[in-house]
Design goal:
Strand content: 5-15%
Number of helices: 10
Oligomer: single chain
Radius of gyration: 27 Å
CATH class of one domain: Alpha Beta
Helix content: 55-70%
Order of helices and strands: HHHEHEHEHHHHHEE
Strand order of the largest sheet: 2-1-3-4-5
Largest sheet: 5 strands, mixed
Length: 263
Amino acid sequence: MTDEQSVNDELKDLDDDSIDATQARDATQALAAEEQASEIASFEDDESTASGIWNRLLSGNRRFSEGKMEHPNQDTVSRETLVEAQNPAAAVLTCADSRVAPELVFDTGLGDLFVTRTAGPMLDDAVISTLELAITQLHVKLLVVMGHEHCAAIEAACEELDELVERTETESGKHAETFMDDLDGIIEASSSSILREVGMSVWQARMAELTTNEEYEQVHIARIIEQLVTRSEVIRKALAEEKLMIVGARYKMSNGLVEVLSF
């Protein structure tokens, strides 16, 4: 064997060793990534966590949308088991619209959800106290604030807001553009709860140059969540201690799916 051949063989062996080392490193990294993904998925599927509970609700919603509902916890045994106590997985604040029933939309049963419903939805002291009870006494880890498309409360708020602007123009003799900055106070002083609670959301959306009911619905849910955090020390404390997760959502009647809102 010539010296040149010997050198080439040694270089080849070195290359093979490098390839083996690279492959081993890549395999190790891939395995670590797979294990990490598995741990994350396991955490998100763990129904003892807020994320796991939310994923279970979304799975139920997919079944509802596809017409494959399982109707869990709706038998006699479930009813009798719940006589002495309840242990709901989540609290849901949503609209009173007859077409929006969280227990059906999320394919849940008796004792699964602690549901509070008002038009809009709207907030008052009773609603906040109800949700605080769910957090302090029932220890729910997830609060879903859910609006929906074709919301009659949003539509009514739009009409009342338009009427308010027109009436203010007439009474003041000024064009709307001249008192836009003062309209917040006028809305807050209104005797109409729809205008105060829902109309303010529509107004804020319009000030941000948003124009569709879908956008108004999304802004309203964001504002409701903001108001909950602002007005409730219990909710603020639970969030700060990571004992509660709040999710904003919107139910689409057209396909039965719940979309997650990002703010």
